[in-house]
Specification:
Length: 107
């Protein structure tokens, strides 16, 4: 993995058995120099606990877009403001927005 120093990555995890691989991805991103903020769906939290990902990332894990730790209760907006990239891994078909599934494929 290339140098990710001073990069802030949002790691979104949706529910699926492959979530354990995302924990490895979190560790690899940090090893490459990135700061990683983990966001879990409720389903993902059934496969990998927020405590595990907090230990790996060194940051609190978000499970709700209306997290009360945020002063304005809008984590879904606040988190995006400081991110350089959003990685969703794993992703399952039910987590894809309808607009992506309906978009025509182009080359």
């Amino acid at each position: 993995m290339s140098d990710l120093s001073k990069r802030h990555i949002l790691l979104g995890m949706s529910g699926g058995i492959a979530c354990y691989k995302s924990a490895e991805l979190c560790r690899a991103l940090i090893k490459a120099g990135a700061t990683v903020q983990v966001i879990l769906t409720e389903a993902a939290a059934q496969f990998v606990t927020p405590v595990t990902l907090q230990a790996l990332s060194g940051r609190p894990v978000y499970v709700s877009q209306w997290d009360p730790r945020e002063p304005n209760n809008m984590a879904h907006i606040n988190l995006s403001r400081e991110a350089d990239a959003l990685v969703v891994a794993p992703t399952v078909p039910t987590s894809w927005p309808n607009s992506c599934m309906a978009a025509p494929m182009t080359s």
